UniProtKB/TrEMBL annotation:
This is PROP1-like PPR domain-containing protein. The lineage of its organism: Eukaryota, Viridiplantae, Streptophyta, Embryophyta, Tracheophyta. PPR repeats lie at residues 196-230, 231-265, 311-345, 346-380, 381-415, 416-450, 519-553, 589-623, 624-658, 659-693, 694-728, 763-797. Residues 175-293 form the PROP1-like PPR domain. Belongs to the PPR family. P subfamily. GO terms for cellular component: chloroplast.
Amino acid sequence: MFAKLQLDSNCFPVVSTFAKTSSPNVGVSVPTKTGVSIPSFEKVEPTVKLGEQRTGGTSEAEKVSGFRRSTENQKACTVFGPELENPDGRQRRTSPNASTSGKRKNLGAKLNGVKSNAPVRKAHTKCSTKWATYGGCIPSILQALDTVKDLDEALRPWEDTLNNKERSIILKEQSSWERAFEIFEWFKSKRCYELNVIHYNIMLRSLGRAKKWSLVESLCREMAVKGIAPINSTYGTLIDVYSKGGLKEKALAWLEKMNQQGMLPDEVTMGIVLQMYKKSGEFQKVEDFFKQWKMDERGDSDSSHDDHSLSLYTYNTLIDTYGKSGQLKEASNIFSEMLRKGIMPTTVTFNTMIHICGNNGHLDEVKSLIQKMQELRCLADTRTYNILISLHTKHDDIDMAAQCLRKMKEEQLEPDLVSYRTLLYAFSIRHMVIEAEGLVSEMDEKGLEIDEYTQSALTRMYIDVGLLEKSWLWFMRFHGTGNMTSECYSATIDAYGERGYISEAEEVFLCSQKNKKLSVLEFNVMIKAYGYVKNFVKACELFDSIESHDVIPDRCSYGSLIQILAGADLAEKAQHYLNKMQEAGLISDCITYCAVISSFAKSGRLEMAKKLYNEMIEFDVKPDVIVYGILINASAEAGNTEEAIGYIDAMRKSGLPGNAVIYNSLIKLYTRVGYLKEAEETYKLLLSSDAGPDVYCSNCMIDLYCEQSMAKQAEEIFRRMKRNGEANEFAYAMMLCMYKRLGRFQEASRVAREMRTLGLLSNLLSYNSVIGLYSLDGRFNDAVATFKEMLDDGGVLPDDYTFKSLGLVLVKCGISKRAVARLEAGLKKDYQSGLQAWLIALCTIVDVEVDCEEDGGH
């Protein structure tokens, strides 16, 4: 199974982690190769001599725990780091052993009006069932600690009998790090208790999860003072908490320290390191580390035989890593090894494998996996069916997708929002009205919220099938709540406008105005709607009224109107708005100039086209190949060969020629000075040949038309490529970019959805195009979600263009440009931490959750 799935992996230097080296003789902290200093576990003499009273204030540990040991108890004192001020600024009590009831009564907890030094009634807690599984005295101890604040009182019945295991359970079961630390310090204050490495490990994890790094390091130094040697799980715990706490360099420093101690990570620690690399998208390092670990564990790098079975957690982590990095063969090999060695896969394992194979189009393997699940009696869960629903809709098998939902219900599984939304959207774009309405009814009965994306999809469905009354009732259902956003209003206007239902589009526009939701988005799509029905007068009137509604026209507002007018051969009118756009300082490229120049050239008014070209030069707007192509073609068609050659020379001086597009599609231009016309003739010759144009050549033509904003011609070639199964990711990305630049965001969104459906969203260009579209279109949730997908599932590293688009999202959501600049600076200082800061900032302002901790490779 899966033998045919192969994908070359990238080459990264192998991290040599486990070379046996001697331990350095270090003191309290030690710098590592990473440049990060961490505490050393080497035994050192305490800075406070045993039996000598310490002076100079209260330690950080004492301030947190509330304990201050007497001179007699200083023999148990340990070395801690710099002191911290109490967060609340109040002085902590100095002794938990006060003998008078007057001093004690304010320290205890009150339950139902009973003071803490009185008998406390046992209260039932949510943890009591779990506690009962421990047996013995543990449930009673935990209950007492949960209800009585004062530790002397809570633990008095068991103070003389607690053993190591019981102390470990007590520390581990504390939900609050403060309470755990308080108990830990109480144990230390009692000279009769032994605290071993397990107790310290528990505290390191508790404090690390709370990101109390100074206390973590204090405990490490304390272990060194007491001569408590770290074990494998100690290092694993430190690596785990630092990596999950966003301090990857610290985690790597502990890994290096472990190596320096000549200690080979056990499988649990190894799995923690794999998770760390996987979460940061360093998939090759996961593979390298794992292979090195296996060789070092065997102790013989030349041995090819390994009967050692890994844990389920490790197998799941490896499968998920290989899947996310696109290494299908490796993922299937790990899965096969897992079965061969008798490790029973879980639903998480199968879900991961199904997702990997399905997303890469290997449906036969998906069927095999489902059969294997049944053979092993591994029950599918809601996520299993959600994955299958998504896969079937992507491969246009809507009946199977619907059957998955029915099967889920038959197996007493509760469909969630993902289940309904995925299938509902699939029904809507296929105009399956009855099926879509059935799902809506189910969602209403269950009280599930219909998101704006699905809402817009159903509006378009009703419009596309001519059910205008239903489309209007559907719109009013959400408009009536008063919670519709500007984005949803604009999507509805666009849906009506595209089909020529201009009166309905106008009514939606007025509804938005009444609800005081008008933004530049509604104006832009309404202008475009007038363009669809060729009502150019109203388009201009609406544009001219924008500022009277306290809305400022943006680049898309001008661009859409200029494109509409230029395409309607209203070149003078288009030039008027081009001048206004220039005055507003919104021209950053030559796109709008290109449209107007093209309109003048098309009508034979070459002098006006030349005038605009010269104006571009004066305003330092750089002409591109398309502008030169238009002028070259117009000059050649008018018989002005010298002018055509002059533009060719100017193009050469600008450094524009010399790429494959020029050489392959503009050959005839240099012989007849005809640029685009000859490029088209060359392409027609290729179409009539036996071989026909290859994918690259067709892509060049699409690129050419897109750069010239000639949407109709680009769409024609694109449709032919799709019919022949030749349309690849580049072709889709170019179409998306063209629609985006024209301000035709609805078409751009459709292309983006098709790319997702076909699995053609994998490289940086495509992700940047989609993110740029959503940021310009005001779809901020979608922009952030795509960015997360880019990092988590795509494994693609963002570049400056990505963060430019995301910065636009933040600014549009009210974040200051200074704050965005700080985020950009953070990337340069520490890329991983900076990236996490971007994610947090973005997910704070939009409705997308940050993926924090992962478990089991799921």
